[in-house]
Amino acid sequence: MLNVGALNEGFVLDHIEAGKSMSIYHYLGLDKLDCCVAIIKNARSNKMGKKDIIKVECPIDMLDLNILGFIDHNITVNIIQDGHIVDKKALTLPKEITNVIKCKNPRCITSIEQGLDHVFVLTDPKKEVYRCKYCEEKYKGRK
Amino acid sequence: MRHLMSPLDFSVGELNEIMNLANDIEAHPDKYAHACDGKKLATLFYEPSTRTRLSFEAAMMNLGGNVLGFSSADSSSAAKGESVSDTIRIVSCYSDICAMRHPKEGAPMVAAAKSSIPVINAGDGGHQHPTQTLTDLLTIRSLKGRLENLTIGLCGDLKFGRTVHSLINALVRYENIKFVLISPDELRIPDYIREDVLEANHVDYVQVERLEDAMADLDLLYMTRVQKERFFNEEDYVRMKDFYILDKNKMDLAGPDMLVLHPLPRVNEISVEVDDDPRAVYFKQAQYGVYIRMALILTLLEVKVC
């Protein structure tokens, strides 16, 4: 059994679909943070067969976790303080996401207007469809 | 302050009020001749347009207002690399309301976010063209007397035609609307309109290929042009462009009250011999385009005429 040291303060992101941890690492901007991050890939899981886990040692207000709901709302977010799990955050699909994904429609104004945020809006929560706020092009990158 | 980005920005009730105003303008044009005295409309047209720009300008002039603007990106500061956001901030200082056409989808929305004057989307790429839809609704309501209980044939390029998509979106809000979607296989309505709009709203529709098969059942026939600029190769365009030609023989199959609409310009899809048929209302439709734009300008500028 792999043993990664317990956190004092931070997050444990559990039940990440196997293989997705690195994209989450980048989406959350963990590569830019000066904090301790442990990535466990392909851990055994009764529920999922195998899964990824990310442990982040950082102040709990440091990360915007809303984006995780967009990536995979089945991820379990455990919030750690003083070495204990103090909260489990339920993830929902964010209604709007800004500058996380880019509109790929070459006819969209975002392709030429400098300094314009790339904003996607949740238009169909049931089918988990996000559309560009400006041109309404569907984001096709979701599973 | 309100803008117009999509025909769905207005509720059915609000649209009715705007159309009532347009009909009053049609009946009593003199009453509105000075409603916008001293006000200025900026027409920011980053790509060429004949009908839309001129009808906006005619609408403002009919209201006693003035017009300024440009009719291509080359003659604007966009050619020097100015952003839409900067342009609209400047234009907000010069005018009271603005109509914007832009080849990039969503450009008028970017403008609206930075503007201190109402912005009207006058067409943004293949995305929205709300004043055309308002024109179509006014034409139908004025000439048929209703927007409910209609069987509407949409014919031609149903895949790329933004006016058709927009009209479907607007009409599904009315009771007992049925669509007959007439197109070749290659130009059928996109799945997202079929599934997310028609089926999601439980609207009756059939898809057919032959115009002749549909004519007898229609209250309205909305013809569209096959747009050359939407095709990647010339061969496909040539094969599709004359797929439908509405002529006198086909008109003979239709009922006496059926109306033919077309957003214009037409190329070959309506034979000129149909123009004199009283059921051909596409030129009247262009006139309604001026009335609805007058009503829209008054509404967005919150000008009341007693």
TrEMBL record, chain A:
Residues 96-141 form the Aspartate carbamoyltransferase regulatory subunit C-terminal domain. GO terms for cellular component: aspartate carbamoyltransferase complex. It comes from the Bacteria. GO terms for biological process: 'de novo' pyrimidine nucleobase biosynthetic process; pyrimidine nucleotide biosynthetic process. One of its GO terms (molecular function) is metal ion binding. Residues 2-91 form the Aspartate carbamoyltransferase regulatory subunit N-terminal domain. PANTHER family: ASPARTATE CARBAMOYLTRANSFERASE REGULATORY CHAIN. This is Aspartate carbamoyltransferase regulatory subunit. It comes from Murimonas intestini.
From TrEMBL, chain B:
Carbamoyl phosphate binds at R51, T52, R101, H129, Q132, L264, P265. The keyword Transferase applies. It comes from the Bacteria. Its EC number is 2.1.3.2. GO terms for molecular function: amino acid binding; aspartate carbamoyltransferase activity. SUPFAM superfamilies: Aspartate/ornithine carbamoyltransferase. It is an enzyme of class 2 (transferase). Pathway: Pyrimidine metabolism; UMP biosynthesis via de novo pathway; (S)-dihydroorotate from bicarbonate: step 2/3. Residues 2-141 form the Aspartate/ornithine carbamoyltransferase carbamoyl-P binding domain. Keywords: Pyrimidine biosynthesis, Transferase. Residues 149-299 form the Aspartate/ornithine carbamoyltransferase Asp/Orn-binding domain. It catalyses: carbamoyl phosphate + L-aspartate = N-carbamoyl-L-aspartate + phosphate + H(+). L-aspartate binds at K80, R162, R225. GO terms for biological process: 'de novo' pyrimidine nucleobase biosynthetic process; 'de novo' UMP biosynthetic process; amino acid metabolic process. InterPro entries: Asp/Orn_carbamoyltranf_P-bd (IPR006132), Asp/Orn_carbamoylTrfase (IPR006130), Asp/Orn_carbamoylTrfase_sf (IPR036901), Asp_carbamoyltransf (IPR002082), Asp_carbamoyltransf_Asp/Orn-bd (IPR006131). Belongs to the aspartate/ornithine carbamoyltransferase superfamily. ATCase family. Catalyzes the condensation of carbamoyl phosphate and aspartate to form carbamoyl aspartate and inorganic phosphate, the committed step in the de novo pyrimidine nucleotide biosynthesis pathway. Heterododecamer (2C3:3R2) of six catalytic PyrB chains organized as two trimers (C3), and six regulatory PyrI chains organized as three dimers (R2). This is Aspartate carbamoyltransferase. It comes from Murimonas intestini. The gene is pyrB.
